[in-house]
Design a protein that fits this description.
The longest helix is centred in the middle third of the chain and has 13 residues. The relative contact order is 0.22. With 91 residues, this protein is mainly alpha-helical. The protein has one domain: Arc Repressor Mutant, subunit A (Orthogonal Bundle), CATH 1.10.10.10. The radius of gyration is 12 Å and the shape is globular.
Length: 91
Amino acid sequence: MRPDLASWMTPVDRSILELLRNEEGQELVLTPGLIAENTDWKRQTVREHVALLLEHELVEYHDESRAIYRLSDKGRQYLAGDLSADELEND
């Protein structure tokens, strides 16, 4: 079951988090451009949402100088259902 979205989130945010989780195997580390290539979202949209997810600590830098992102522990907890959308409201 997919977790509920916090009020500040959209389906774009969930798509980004789920792509980084990569249920097919090892978690991915990706740039916004590569995230856009692997989703239905445009690169600029992905950049905006990655910045928001970074602000809310659901993603973190894997390599800041190259703008490569990965899931944070908090992002993993959210996707696993261990952190509710309500708990994300106060961030």
